[in-house]
Amino acid sequence: MADWADTRVSLAGQGALVGVAMTASAAGACLANVAGIQVTARVVTGISIAAGNSILVLRRGSVYWAIATLGPAPAVPPSLPSTGQDTGSTPPPPSDPAPTPKPTVTTGTLVCPPIATSTWRDGSWRTDIGSSTSADTFQGRYGGSGFGRNSGFAFYGSKPRSIAGATVTKATVRLRRLTSGDYGQRSPTLRLVTQSTRPAGFPTLNESTTGPVLGVVYQVSPWETTFTIPTSWGQAMVDGTRGGLAINISSDDPYIRLAGRGSWSAAWTLTLYWRRSS
Q1: CB atoms within 10 A of CB 83
Q2: Which CATH class is domain 105-277?
Q3: Is the backbone peptide bond immediately before 254 cis, with ω within 30 degrees of 0?
Q4: Residue 253 has pLDDT above 90, yes or no
Q5: The CATH number of the domain covering residues in 14-70
Q6: What's the pLDDT tens digit per position in 6-59?
Q7: DSSP alpha helices (H): ranges in 138-263?
Q8: How far is 248 from 136, CA to CA, in rounded Å?
Q9: In sequence order, which residues have a C-beta less than 8 Å from that of residue 1 and are 6 or more positions away?
Q10: pLDDT in tens, 79-102
Q11: Which pLDDT score is estimated for 81?
């Protein structure tokens, strides 16, 4: 039979609702409290309802149907179906291995001022141009001079090896051209040197590359630069197989003078950019 209780509060469109049986089911119906509204609910055949049961109520048109009783929550969570094995001693099934942790990458910059700048000429280190460990560095022979060719050197000691094991990603050197020879733009020839400290005799020269194009300071620009040398050269210094840089040619020209550390504090400063994985 129709129940007009919902004319006060509409439950239309609410779907299945949970109510409380106010009476036991009898003659296929019971009284129930649904959302604060007392309704007469028809009971689905086969369901027995006692007063106080929580019931699942479904509305169809103006008729309420008690379609199930709701039991209490289980006291113990359900267990997995038995496999006939002692799960207490059976190891868990294998899973995919954890991914390999990504390596930690450290990067840095190492600044290496030269421990000595010197020029070699006629079988010895020049002392007529200042201290033999902070002198300017010359390349070639001055036109008409009776002296031999010059070769200039910068030595870096042990500091590059302080990051041994690192990978060099870039290497630069600071250079400034001073007055000597003509004022036109000229390029020195850079050489990689085996020794890291100044030897008594002529150092061992190795790889070569063309240096920067420079004019004379305050006369022809540019006269100063931060020049990128081959990355492999920086790596060789870190690895300890090389230790210095030089300007050297097998002919007289171009005659070039580059500042040593006594003339310019930044002269021949080597900067190594590096990374390391761990």
Answers
A1: 8
A2: mainly beta
A3: yes
A4: yes
A5: 2.40.50.140
A6: 444 455 556 678 899 999 988 889 998 988 888 898 988 888 899 989 888 888
A7: 231-239
A8: 14
A9: 40
A10: 666 555 555 566 666 667 778 888
A11: 60
Alpha carbons within 13 A on the beta-carbon side of 69: 16
Please report, as a single letter, which amino acid is at residue 211. G
Delimiting residues of CATH 2.40.50.140 domain(s) in the chain: 14-70
Any residues with CB less than 8 A from the CB of 94 and at least 6 apart, and which? none
Given CA atoms 84, 88, 91, 92 in this order, what sign does their dihedral have? positive
Whether 244 and 195 have beta carbons less than 8 Å apart is answered as: yes
- pLDDT for residue 2 is more than 50: no
Residues 6+ apart with CB under 8 A from 198: 116, 118, 125, 132, 133, 153, 155
Residues of the chain within CATH 2.60.120 domain(s) are 105-277
Q: Find out whether 257 and 264 touch, Cβ atoms under 8 Å.
A: no
| The token pair that represents 253 in the structure block | 């020209």
Rounded to whole angstroms, the Cα distance separating 215 from 277 reads: 42
